[in-house]
Amino acid sequence: MNSFAIRNGLGYVTLALMIAALFMVFDYVPPEAEQGIAQLIFYFHVPLAWVAFASFGIVAIAGIFYLWLGDQLWDDLGYAAAETGMVFCTLMIVAGSIWAKPIWGTWWTWDSRLTTTFILWLMYVGYLMLRASADDTPQVARFGAVIGIVAALDVPIVIASVRLWRTIHPAVLVTKQGGHGLEDPRMVATLLVCLAAFTAFWAWLLMLRFSQLRTRTRLGALAVRIAFADAALSDSK
Amino acid sequence: MENLGYLFAAYSIIFVVIFLYVVFIWRRQAALDAELRTLEARMAALTDETAASTSGDSQSDA
Questions:
Q1: To bridge B3 with a disulfide, which of A38, A123, A163, B54 should be the other Cys (CB 3.0-4.6 Å)?
Q2: Is B30 on the interface with A (CB under 8 A)?
Q3: What is the pLDDT of residues A96-127, one digit of tens each?
Q4: What CATH number did the domain enclosing A36 receive?
């Protein structure tokens, strides 16, 4: 099975899972007693965070391999993961902020979880600005790899922030008392389906973007070879 | 149904941004296809020019 067939299959799986996730969020799961309907944002907010963190983990791993081996493939993978990670991280922050307004009474507060997430977001903005503003040279790829690795170090800090510092952000998945804070089994089932849907969607987007960046790299190399051949032909005339 | 507006806003923004990102990827693909066609055309022209130049050389040698 080639990568095109895998990607297509993953696309259909994503579509089916996303429809199931939406059905479960809006028709199956009961809203949480205190927060009411606004709590339903949680079922997309958590998966968005998961795929954003997974993306940034891949950026760091790809960065380490790029610095070690110098193979352009790792740079393309890191760039693709950073881009998809930024899309999901931005959506995670926006969804969280919309949830916060009716629950906390404010769109944003400089809480430890929110602040460390904002720092993470800013570092990947820097990564993408570097990649967008400079040519694709090995030096820029090395800078990008270093930024990607350093920025990913913030991911465990974001995750641990609700236990390390005083915060108003709820610790739902792993509470301070241990266990999770989802009172109904339907909430757990809905969250798992949403996590599966976003994981499939993220993998599909990442494969698509990575494949595009690989193609771009190969086309660039081909253009250079054609330019050399062109010049050689002109000289021989 | 209190806070329905917030719920609607959150899910709408998520799907609109995801849709825009997919459109962005789609447009990048179209640009790559165009670049590939340009390079293929240049490659074909180069092959023709090389063939013509080689046959010209062999005729002058004869």
A1: A38
A2: no
A3: 999 999 988 999 999 899 999 999 999 999 99
A4: 1.20.120
Number of domains observed in the structure of chain A = 1
Name the residue facing A44 among B11, B36, B39 (closest C-beta): B11
| ipTM summary value | 0.86
Residue A105 domain flag: yes
Write phi, then psi, for A182 (nearest 5 degrees).
-90, 110
Full residue range of the structural domain in which residue A150 is found = 3-211
Within a domain: A219: no
Cα gap A122→A141, rounded to integer Å = 19
Does the beta carbon of A231 lie under 8 angstroms from any beta carbon of chain B? Answer: no
What is the pTM for the complete model shown?
0.88
Residue A33 lies in a domain: yes
